[in-house]
Design goal:
Largest sheet: none
Order of helices and strands: HHHHH
Radius of gyration: 48 Å
Structural class: mainly alpha
Length: 139
């Protein structure tokens, strides 16, 4: 600014000084925009690289795969042992097999109802005089 003022000393210099100031301000604004754009591009690039790293994972080699497989098989075996320890037999019996083996189950429902006191009383006299009913045997 001072340089412009000294060069135009004695002339109409207001317009020249304002023009020089405006040019300098435009240069400063352009530099700021460039810096912001560079910073924005740098951040985008960092984010993109972080995304790539997140999806990269571990490189699989024969050694790493075999180590993973051994660990996985061991884990599966432990799970099978836990399940087999919890169950006394290897096979769970079906309902029919249970009734075939244990005949006390035949009357267990009746005993349960008698214990609860919810036994059903049936009046058999209602069923003795069925001859009076007009029931057709036609099908």
């Amino acid at each position: 600014m001072n340089k412009e003022a000294e060069e135009n000393l004695g002339m109409v210099m207001v317009f020249t000084l304002v023009s020089a100031a405006q040019e300098r301000l435009n240069e400063i604004v352009d530099e700021l925009k460039e810096r912001q754009e560079e910073e924005k591009l740098r951040k985008e690039k960092e984010i993109e690289e972080a995304e790539k790293k997140r999806f990269e994972g571990t490189h699989v080699t024969i050694e790493t795969f075999l180590a993973w497989k051994a660990k996985f098989v061991e884990e599966i075996e432990r799970e099978k042992k836990k399940r087999s320890i919890g169950q006394p037999g290897t096979k769970k019996l079906t309902g029919k097999e249970l009734f075939m083996q244990d005949h006390t189950l035949d009357s267990s429902d009746v005993q349960f109802l008698e214990e609860e006191g919810d036994s059903v009383q049936v009046d058999e006299s209602l069923f003795q005089d069925l001859d009076d009913l007009d029931i057709d045997d036609e099908d």
